[in-house]
Amino acid sequence: MKKLKRSARLVEMTQYLLSRPHTLIPLTTFADRYGAAKSSISEDLVIIKEVFEDEGMGELMTLAGAAGGVKFIPKIPKDQALVFAEELCSQLQQKDRILPGGYLYMSDLLGEPSLMNEAGKIFATAFADQEIDVVMTVETKGIPLAYATGAQLNLPVVLVRRDHQVTEGSAVSINYVSGSHKSIHTMSLSRRALKEKSKVLIVDDFMKAGGTIQGMVDLLAEFDAEVAGVGVLVESGEVNTEERLLHDYVSLATLTNVDAKTKEIDVKPGNYFTKK
């Protein structure tokens, strides 16, 4: 039990809520933690709720009843998300990102915690109303984004392997066609990593035709699991609709053109900002 002044209690309660998103916290938890009356705790939560909403940090939901409490739902307003997307596009347009073969270097951005946390918060906002059990990605570059999204949704992360690891026990493996190269690849998932009938949010760093993500969708079918949504940091806008293997997804940036000769890169905010 901690006896704190109200100002200090408000700070600690806020931190407590921020570190436990999508978690129902009974009022008695705070009352016992601070040795305060529930009525005082309720007043504090009203103040915190107003700050969260006014600052665009998210929602503080209150559930009434004996089994009730409060739950913090991280959300970012679309205008704030657009500022992030425009900054992401600006960084992606740097000429020195073009690699041989017209590929785009993104590893530095994917390794930036603050950037990935913000992207994760946007995905958490986009899929806040979906029932999700786990976040999934394929190794390796999408891992930081998946963990950032999982942290905002307070969900575990499941990693699909390109090569089966002996230390993960028996696994389900499938072959899939890479949409960009039209070549056959293999991906696998440990049988212990995912429960049957799970609802899964797939997250990946880049999508061209969608072959890799479609492979994950097919792999989930082997677990009788359901795809709750798909989020990609950057999608290629150079792929025809007929060639796209996936159509229902959320993207934060769209790469429309990479000219290796002129070193010109065109990127615009993704479909998250045009979806209704």
UniProtKB/TrEMBL annotation:
Record GO biological process: negative regulation of DNA-templated transcription; negative regulation of purine nucleobase metabolic process
Record keyword Transcription regulation present: yes
Domain Bacterial purine repressor N-terminal: 5-74
GO MF, one example: DNA binding
Coiled coil ranges: none
Keywords: DNA-binding, Transcription, Transcription regulation
Annotated ranges, domain Phosphoribosyltransferase: 119-238
Lineage start: Bacteria, Bacillati, Bacillota, Bacilli, Bacillales
Pfam families reported for this sequence: Pribosyltran (PF00156), PuR_N (PF09182)
Family label: Belongs to the purine/pyrimidine phosphoribosyltransferase family. PurR subfamily.
Name of this protein: Pur operon repressor
Subunit structure: Homodimer.
Keyword DNA-binding: yes
Naturally occurring in which organism (per UniProt): Paenibacillus albilobatus
